[in-house]
Amino acid sequence: MSEDPTRELEKQEERTEEASSDHASPVLRAVAEKDIGSAIAVAGHPLHAMMVHFPIALVVATLGADIFYWWSADPFWVRAGLWSAGFAFAFGVAAAIVGTAELLLVPGIRVRVASWNHAIAAMVLIAIAGANWGLRLNVPDAVLPHGLMLSVLAALVTGMAGWHGGKLVFDHGVGLLISSRK
Fold first, then answer.
1. Cα–Cα–Cα angle for 51, 35, 46, rounded to 5 degrees
2. Number of structural domains the chain divides into
3. Summary mean pLDDT of the chain
4. Domain for residue 15, yes or no?
5. Which residues are CB-neighbours of 168 under 8 A, at least 6 positions away?
6. Which site in 82, 138, 160, 181 is 20 to 30 Å from 170, CA atoms measured?
């Protein structure tokens, strides 16, 4: 069972103080002192961190459906790819709305370069996922090769967005705790 939320906030403040004392630069010290707690959470759990798993899994599922269709020519995989691409796009938009709100509401997130890199990569990913879904809706016969190429591209961009999102969480501690602001 997790510790008391008050104790977790105290630990975050201690880490912030330690980080700010480690930095010689006043700019880095100012960045380290900014609040990085999640502003949008449910029952103490940051919502964006919970939501991103769905579009990631669905982008990979779309790629898998395309590969299985390429190998088997079974039309089932075209339908499966259509549904997974559509839900990847829809869940990606939902995660992006929450992530954008976090970016705009929490000053400590806005000042970190990795957050902007993550946001840009995520927006590119949503555009690719939307194009992939639109292609499947309008031209189902174009799954090979165009849908497969979009799926590969989406998987690569997912890796880039995930890398920068991981930097925010693991290197900067962004979104691990609820914001202490009232």
1. 15
2. 1
3. 87
4. no
5. 109, 112, 114, 115, 118, 174, 175
6. 181
